[in-house]
């Protein structure tokens, strides 16, 4: 048994980011062709495309502002011209900002998180789901966060955006499940990325002591779960919020 994405086309938003680039590479290793979305970092997007092409897979780089419906629609048309359709959408992009207390956080930061967590997924759904419905097949995967269950001080804008995203995904799973399209969320913990390795910052005793597995997860471990949900091995999983954080948060029943 293996994760086989051969002949599947995957769109990863924010694919030039620390987690996004590993997700894209992992999907390619599993046999998929890739759409590498970027907002500003075209050079990194082109580099990732070259990496994936070297694996023998097709890949294109497409620019879009995922918080703008017209921009997402334009991206969709560009993908149709080059690759026809998308089988799997991974909504990974998110706007970065400085975390502050509720009283200090600017209203614009709350709006940025709503736009990049909720509205990104709305725009992606409107653009890509109709064709999935017509084919009676698809995967729609969103990257959430363990913070949605923590609600720690200074997390409010991020949590508000991601909790709104959670409600959207659960509703969407019920609305389109009859078309054999699954809708799921992966919720990473504080994950070790290429940047952390380069800086020698893989470990944090204060964080790890509260994690049952006593360590931080890696970008590859997050990508592995995304690839699983994208595959036919996960064909009967939908509406799920799956923490990938060593047990640091545990959804209850």
From TrEMBL:
It holds the Pfam family adh_short_C2. InterPro entries: NAD(P)-bd_dom_sf, SDR_fam. Keywords: Oxidoreductase. The keyword Oxidoreductase applies. The keyword Oxidoreductase applies. GO terms for molecular function: oxidoreductase activity. Gene3D superfamilies: NAD(P)-binding Rossmann-like Domain (3.40.50.720). Belongs to the short-chain dehydrogenases/reductases (SDR) family. This is SDR family oxidoreductase. It comes from Paenibacillus lutrae.
């Amino acid at each position: 048994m293996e994760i086989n994405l051969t002949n599947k086309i995957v769109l990863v938003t924010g694919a030039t980011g620390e987690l996004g680039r590993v997700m894209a590479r992992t999907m390619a290793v599993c046999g998929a062709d890739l759409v590498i979305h970027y907002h500003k970092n075209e050079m990194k997007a082109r580099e990732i495309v070259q990496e994936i092409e070297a694996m023998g897979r097709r890949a294109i780089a497409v620019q879009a502002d995922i918080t703008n419906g017209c921009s997402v629609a334009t991206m969709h048309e560009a993908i149709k011209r080059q690759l026809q359709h998308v089988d799997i959408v991974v909504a990974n992009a998110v706007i970065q900002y400085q975390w502050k207390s509720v009283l200090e956080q600017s209203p614009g930061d709350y709006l940025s998180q709503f736009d990049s967590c909720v509205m990104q997924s709305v725009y992606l759904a409107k653009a890509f789901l109709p064709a999935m419905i017509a084919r009676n097949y698809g995967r729609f995967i969103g990257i959430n966060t363990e913070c949605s269950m923590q609600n720690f001080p200074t997390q409010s804008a991020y949590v508000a955006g991601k909790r709104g995203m959670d409600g959207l995904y659960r509703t969407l799973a019920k609305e389109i499940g009859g078309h054999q399209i699954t809708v799921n969320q992966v919720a990473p913990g504080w994950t070790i990325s290429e940047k952390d390795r380069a800086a020698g910052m893989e470990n944090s005793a204060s964080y790890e002591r509260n994690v049952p597995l006593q360590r931080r997860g890696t970008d590859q471990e997050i990508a592995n779960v995304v690839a699983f949900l994208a595959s036919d091995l996960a064909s009967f999983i939908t509406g799920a919020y799956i923490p990938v954080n060593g047990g640091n948060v545990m959804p209850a029943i």
